[in-house]
Amino acid sequence: MTSIKQLRRDAKSLRKAFEAGDALARQRVEAAGPRDELSGLKHADFLHVIARERGFRSWPRLIFSVEALGMDRAEKRQRMIVALFHGQAWRVEQLLEADPDLAEGDFHLACALYDRAAVEAALRDDAGLAIAVASDRRPIVWLAASRRFQTRPDLEADMLAIAGLLLAHGADVNDGVQWAEGHMLSALYLAIGAGDNMALGRWLLEHGADPNDNESLYHATELGHHEGLKLLLAHGAKPNGTNALLRAMDFDDVAAVRMLLAAGADPDEFDGSDVGGERPWVYPALHQAARRMCSREMVDVLLDGGADPARVHDGMTAYALARAYGNQAVSGALEARGVATALSPVEAALSRVAEGEAVPLDPEALPEAVRHILREMLHIPGRLEHVKQLVEAGLPFDTPDPEGLTPVQVAGWVGLPEVMGYFLSLGPDLTHVNGYGGTLLSTIIHGSENNPTREGRDYEGCLRLALEAGVALPRRAAQFAGDLALAAFLEDWAEAHPEQVVEDGVV
Questions:
Q1: What CATH number has the domain spanning 402-507?
Q2: What is the separation of C-alpha 13 from the centre of its chain, rounded to a whole number of angstroms?
Q3: What is the DSSP string of 237-304?
Q4: Contacts for 126-129 with beta carbons within 8 Å, 24 or more apart?
Q5: CA–CA distance, 374 with 395 (Å, rounded to integer)
Q6: Which helix (H) or strand (E) segment is 116 a member of?
Q7: Where are the domains of the chain?
Q8: Mean per-residue pLDDT over the chain, rounded
Q9: I need a surface site. Which of 108, 222, 242, 365 has the fewest CB within 10 A?
């Protein structure tokens, strides 16, 4: 097969000819291009044409095919494992198309691929495989972590049959993988919370999985539907202590909040004992409504559910916090219910900034509740001008939050290039590594795959801004980008800017 270098040259030649008005080049783009509209094409579009002309559905598929020629069997298997766990279905299918027997002899990989026949045969020879550890995980965890169901829903019966076989041979439905010292991610969480695999999640619950694993209920609020939430609550999940109520409010999901309150969630659960501790983002529910720009309906539901409007948290009432955030829906709802509270001078100043006035602020005088208001607000649509006003008023623009994330990293994670560009213009520390071990570049890539509101966001734009600002590009970055367009963009950038590519680095 032609080298990757030559394929890139072919794409550049095609682009040059197309932009010069060459009729044949236009015909090639029309026949194989990714867009109906032929204006404003990017280099990635011409890479796509080259891939389609060679029988591949996308440029990353073509590149991966070329790379795979130089991989040994172990490397291909490892790449498949990463793809299965990260939802990179196209890489899985491409590896299997090239070598249908790639997983042969690997019991754990057979579980993750839902290869029922292989699992049955292996257990007949060695029943102990059902609880054998590979890569720190037992087979039922491999099964739960696999996202093969996303593109192969026809294998659901095989997936559930494998779960039954593992259980019959000693597997534990409450098994999991150690994420940090003393903290385990359960198979149930991997199925429901991380994978949106309702069929396996239901099976695990029906066979005794504990719904109170401190992860599943919280992450079930992020799925954009209520099936997982209903499943967990029906099997006895207890909302208090999980932050699920607050997470549902991040999406102004009134229906989910009603369900959680009906299941016993306490809107004033926070007792103040965790300030500065392990749960830095826990708030009473009305405060959460204020900072997450929730609706008037949300306030009414919370007040009817017993929330205390006079509650002071980190030095502010919910009403004062709503005024500081410019959340007129929440402040108006509290005023309509007659439970607004008086503002202190600092709170009044914050309110005036939110209303567009140029008022100086002393960062050291701010209540704890708004110490990280920039990081907490920047992802909210339409709040960029407010963010700029806060910076102009004197708030520091590059301070890490309790999770070690800086505002520019958060802007990249949520895929907002306009906001990220603003923070880049202020000169942030581009070498900062956050509390999760991520750099600006890796945080953007992670957000493109894990941000629950990533649909419609511009992660390529964020990557471009970061790279134009001079951040290093680890050579492996494109391999770990699950989004095909981002993988193509990173491959193209690495080719065009070899001086920026580093062999090591955080991905």
A1: 1.25.40.20
A2: 37
A3: ---TTTTHHHHHHHTT-HHHHHHHHHTT--TT---STTTTSS-TT---HHHHHHHTT--HHHHHHHHH
A4: 127/169, 127/170, 129/169
A5: 8
A6: helix 116-125
A7: 4-55, 103-237, 282-396, 402-507
A8: 89
A9: 365
Q: C-alpha 407: how far from its chain's center? A: 17
Residues across the chain: 507
The CATH homologous superfamily of the domain defined by 103-237: Ankyrin repeat-containing domain (1.25.40.20)
More confident residue, 439 or 57: 439
H/E run at residue 216: helix 216-220
Region 47-61: mean pLDDT is 80
Predicted TM-score (pTM) of the model is 0.78
Backbone φ, ψ for residue 147 (5° rounding) = -110, 25
- Quote the tokens at residue 456: 């419609």
Same fold, 282-396 and 402-507: yes
Task: Please tell me the distance from the alpha carbon of residue 441 to that of residue 465, in angstroms, as a whole number.
Answer: 10
Using the predicted structure, report yes or no on whether residue 410 has a pLDDT greater than 70. yes
Under the banding of pLDDT at 50, 70 and 90, the label for residue 278 is very low
The CATH number of domain 282-396 is 2.40.30: no
| CA gap 69, 300 in Å, rounded | 61
Q: Which of 372, 443, 380, 454 is nearest to 413 (CA)?
A: 443
